[in-house]
Amino acid sequence: MEAITKIRPRALVRACGGPRYAVALAVDALGTGLLRPFLLLYGVMVLGLSAPATGIAMTAGIVVGLVCMPAVGRWLDRGARSTVVAASMLVRALGVALLLATPAGHVWPFATAALVLGVGNQAWPAAHAALVATVAHGRERDTALAAGRALRNAGLGVGALLATACLAGGATALRAMAVATGIAYLTAAALARSVHLRARPAAGPAEDGAGAGPAPRMRALLAANVVYVFCLNVPEIALPLVLVTQLHASPVWSAAVFVANTVLVVTLQVPVTVLLSRFPRRTVLAVAGVVLTASYLGFLAATSLGTGRAAPAVAAVSVVCTLGEIVYAGSATALVTALAPAHALGRALARFELSTGFGLAVSPAVITALAPHGPGVLWGGLAGATLLSASAVAAEKDGARKDGAGKDGAGREGTGEGAAEEDRGACLSRR
Question: Which residue intervals are annotated with compositional bias (Basic and acidic residues) in the record (predicted)?
Fold first, then answer.
C-alpha cells in the first residue's frame, strides 16, 4: 500500500504547484480573511442595509454561484489549470470592485457583488484541486492538498485578525479592507497565472474506443458530503449559537473555540493526512464521519451539564469535532481525485464542489432551525445524519474500469480508485 512516511517541505512545495503558486495561495487567503468574515458588517455599516437583506443577498450569491460549476468542470477537462485558478481570483477582484462601487442603501448592486464573489469562491476549490492533482500523484497529492488547506486556513486566520484589529475604524476601515482584498486578489491572480500550468486533455479513453465518457457518479459520496460539510460551520455558527443564546456563556468561549479550530487545522492537517495515508481513502472518510458523530454526541452530553461546566465541556469536545473535520478534509477531495479518470477530473471535482457548496449554503439555515428545539434535536439530528452518511460512504462501491486493469491503493485488482490514478499519467505542460 502506498503511504507517505515523511514530510519533505521542498517536495511538498513542488507538489502544491511550486513556490510562486504557494505565495499566490497565501496572498489570496490573506485577502479573503480581510473581507469575507466581515461582508455582512460591510453591508450593514458601510452601505446602511438591513441585516436580513444583507444576509439574503449573501446566501443568494453563494447558491447562484454554484451554477457556474458545470462550466468550470468542462473548462478544467479541456486541460486548463493555472488559468482557471487565476480566473477565479480575478472574478473575486471584480466582485470587490462592484462592492466598492455600490451606493449606500442600494441592495441590488450589493447582491450583484455578492453573486460575483460567490462565483469566484465556488470555482476556486475545484480549480485548485485539479491543479494539484496534475502536479502531484498518489499519496503525495493527498499531502499537497492538505498542505494547501493548512496554508489557506493560516492566511484566513491572519487576515481575520488584522481585520478585527482594524474594525475600530468603522466604515472607513471596512472600505480600506475591501480595497486591500481587491489588491490581494489581483496580486494572487498574477502569481497563479505566471505558473503557466495546463494538462493535455487525456486521449486514452477515446483511443481505446470507450469514448470520453461521463464523470463518475459517486452518488453516495456526494450526498454524504452535503452532511459532512456541516462540520465546517459548527465552530462558526452552531457553537456560538449554543454557547451564547442557550448556555448564556461569555462570547469569549466562542472566540476561543474558533481560534483553537484554526490553530489545530493549520498545525495538524498535514501530519494527520500523512499518518492516515497507510489506509484506504474511503475508509478514512468513513472514520471521519464516525469521529464527527462522536463529537456531536459529546456536544449533546456537554450541554446537559450544569451552569459553569457546560461551556468548558463544549470547548473541549470541539477539539474532537475539529479532528473529525481534519480527517474529513484530508480524505474527501483526495478520494474524488483518485476516483476520477483524467478526462473527467474537472467534472468530478465540479460535482463535488456543488455538493460542498450546497451543504455550506443550507447548513446555517438547518442549524438555526434545529437549535430552538433543544440540544437533543440539534446534536442528535446531526449525529444521526452524519453516521448514516458515513455508512453510505463505506458501503458505496468504486466503479471499475471496463478493461478491469489497475489496482487500488491496497493492491487489489479492478477497483476504480487505483485505476483512475493510472489513467491520469503525467499529462501536463508548462508554457
Answer: 396-425
Residue 349 grid cell: 471535482
- Given this model, what pLDDT does residue 333 score? 95
Measured in whole angstroms, how far is the alpha carbon of residue 121 from the centre of its chain? Answer: 10
Residues composing the chain: 431
pLDDT at 170: 84
Give the whole-number percent of the chain exceeding pLDDT 90: 52
Taken in order of first residue, the domains within the chain and their CATH numbers are: 1-201 (1.20.1250.20), 215-425 (1.20.1250.20)
Q: What residues have CB less than 8 Å from 97, skipping those under 6 apart?
A: 182
The residue assigned the cell 490553530 is 263
CA distance 315 to 325: 15
Rounded alpha-carbon distances, angstroms, from residue 91 to 76, 131, 276, 360: 17, 18, 36, 20
Q: Which of 138-152, 240-254, 263-277, 314-328 has the lowest mean pLDDT?
A: 240-254
Which segments of 266-424 are extended strands (E)? Answer: none
DSSP string, 224-281: HHHHHTHHHHIIIIIHHIIIIIIS---HHHHHHHHHHHHHHHHHHHHHHHHHGGGS-H
Cβ–Cβ under 8 Å, residues 113 and 103: no
If one compares 202 and 239, the residue with the highest pLDDT of the two is: 239
101 pairs with which residues across the strands? none
Main-chain phi, psi angles of 185, to 5 degrees: -65, -45
Cα–Cα dist 332/171, whole Å: 39
Chain centroid, CA 216 distance in Å: 20
Of the candidates 258, 399, 225, which has an alpha carbon nearest to the alpha carbon of residue 329?
225
pLDDT at 399 over 80: no
329 contacts: CB under 8 Å, gap ≥ 6: 146, 149, 265, 269
Q: Tell me: the pLDDT tens digits for 352-385? A: 999 999 999 889 889 988 988 989 999 999 999 9
Q: Which of 47-51, 59-63, 129-133 has the lowest average pLDDT?
A: 59-63
pLDDT of residue 245: 82
